[in-house]
Amino acid sequence: MAEWHLRPGHLTLSELRHLLAGRARLSIEPAFWPAVEASAAAVAAAVERGEPAYGINTGFGKLAKVHIANDQLERLQLNLVRSHAVGVGEWLDDATVRLVLALKAASLARGASGVRRELIEALLALYNAGVLPCVPSQGSVGASGDLAPLAHLTLALLGEGEVRIDGRVVPAAEGLRHAGLEPMALAAKEGLALLNGTQVSTALAIRALFEAEDVFAAAVVTGALSVDAARGSDAPFDPRVQALRGQPGQSDVAAVYRRLLDGSGIRASHRVNDERVQDPYSLRCQPQVMGACLDLIRNAGRTLLIEANAVTDNPLVFEDSGEVISGGNFHAEPVALAADTLALAIAETGALSERRIALLIDATLSGLPPFLVREPGLNSGFMMAHVTAAALASENKSLAHPASVDSLPTSANQEDHVSMATFAARRLLPMCANTRRIVAIELLAAAQGIDFHAPLQTSEPLQAVHLALREQVAALDEDRVLATDIAAADALLASEILTPMVADLLPSWRPE
């Protein structure tokens, strides 16, 4: 496995994709270690002076006025970790935990957290050895960062709790041995630095961002296929129309639709004698709706990239002056709002896809056989597949309710406004799965519609999509169990087969 030097504060989205996959052994760029060592020395000097400094020689939260004696500082950090390990629910998946480890190490290595070099190297050792702490997914309100989940992550460094190695759950002490580590004793400030921070909510949101990009790409390609299946017009995708609106996402997406439909024999066959003046919105307004979704995805990506590179623990140590300043960088509002906007984009992508399915099965709108099957009545065709799509779209509408508007004060009103960022981010992957399955049903329906136009053919790019599906799923000649077909189409989309197509047609479609 290749060696990869992390440059804290300079990570790219492309690098974060690799970090999720665990494709390299990580280390910190050597130039960053002097700042780390200087900030750790600044904390040691603050302890020596005995001046009150939050979390270094005081209690936490509402107990910040309680002074802790120097001989109790190690115990203070241990108690902090244990008392905050109150998470519940299913464990975070391996990829997310891997990214959390990398983000936490990179944040601490910026030299503003006052931790020792060996602590950062221990986090990287866990990542490199594939020793992934078992982290419950519930219990954080995104206030002083992701306290509960990060406490469970930190427990592993102490030899407590459980870890996963290649999917096998073992005691943390065994995991440390596998990584070549001994249980750590945390120095002043280190437990607080590990627990404060937005790395869990950020990792969850970044993982969902990448899923949302793939689902978005699939929906654009499938939407173009639906245009041809319904004998729709490509005139609404004219660049002059988009230019008069001026929205960047709209213009970019319209260009993709034009290129996907270019050369379609189906479109050419009805270009002259088509009596329809306008297509329904689910076909005609795809650039406007999907372009707006793309703008949200891009903006969320920019916010989350900034957060991935940020220092978000508290207090912060400024090694040049020796100051220790208590601030609020742990408040995860930027992540919460980015996750909420991603939720809107994901839900709208699925909602528009569901409307196109409804159009395709409606003979009065599509001109295709009712429910996309020969001998309707005897066969129900795609009638119930559309019901599944409607159920998933409706579920996403509930999940898309903004999490960030719900603040419930904690810590005896010391933390009197919280972000709910962890839930805001955590609900995104299930939403992506719902939308991908809606698009999978649309892909099946659109391909069925294309079959009815034979011997006319769609464009070359869309022919390739149609062929890829038909290699997995046969056309529907008569009723059969469509759940199997939906699962196959869903797996095809989950393989990210359509993402490169959109990336090739629009290289700038997502920030790196």
TrEMBL record:
Its EC number is 4.3.1.3. Pathway: Amino-acid degradation; L-histidine degradation into L-glutamate; N-formimidoyl-L-glutamate from L-histidine: step 1/3. This is Histidine ammonia-lyase. It comes from the Bacteria. PROSITE patterns: PAL_HISTIDASE. It catalyses: L-histidine = trans-urocanate + NH4(+). The modification 2,3-didehydroalanine (Ser) is found at S144. It is found in: Cytoplasm. It is an enzyme of class 4 (lyase). One of its GO terms (cellular component) is cytoplasm. Its main location: cytoplasm. There is a cross-link at A143-G145 (5-imidazolinone (Ala-Gly)). InterPro entries: Aromatic_Lyase (IPR001106), Fumarase/histidase_N (IPR024083), HutH (IPR005921), L-Aspartase-like (IPR008948), Phe/His_NH3-lyase_AS (IPR022313). Belongs to the PAL/histidase family. Gene3D superfamilies: Fumarase/aspartase (Central domain) (1.20.200.10), Fumarase/aspartase (N-terminal domain) (1.10.275.10). GO terms for molecular function: histidine ammonia-lyase activity.
